[in-house]
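This section describes the prediction task in plain terms. A model, or a person checking by hand, is given the sequence of a single protein chain and must write out its three-dimensional structure as a string of tokens. No templates, partner chains or ligands are provided. The sample shown here is typical of the held-out split.
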Amino acid sequence: MRPFARRSWCDRHPSSCKHTHRHHNDCNKTLRDNYKQFYDLSKDIVKIDKKLQRSCDSNNTREIISPDAYILYVKLPDFELGHISVQIRHRLLHIQAYKPGEDSKLFSELKILPTFLELADAAYKFADGVLEVVVPIKLSKDETENVCRRRFNESVVTIPNMDTKKVEDNLVDDTSNTPVVNESTLRK
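The expected answer:
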């Protein structure tokens, strides 16, 4: 009789062994493949997060997640509104500011945004040297299931200035998508 240590699992548990060794080998291969995928993906995410952290360490930014919105504050004291560009591609937010002239300056910030944001409704405003980027949260107050059927928007979207966006929103009728001009609109 073989020593206990050398006996296979099926030899030790004949009533429980309902699989073939081919299936057992397939399971091991699947487990190895899943672990490799986990390891590779986690390695890539750590690498990306380290790159983003270097950018964050050199910039003075503050993130706030309120019940209604994701808000990012960035101090840009040496820039003007016309020098600032805010863009999103999929979930990557890119803020860039460039001040031309003899004492030209360049600012760049990258942030990976959470999946629960309504990126199409993002807007920003710039006042007193502080850029405020606001992205509404699309979750309801109730429990929400996160499904694995995400759509990937790979186009670059330039985020509008809030002041410009408010004027445009007030000038369009939501039902017919036609411009609305009345006395109250002209006074704004």
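For orientation: The chain has a mean pLDDT of 76.
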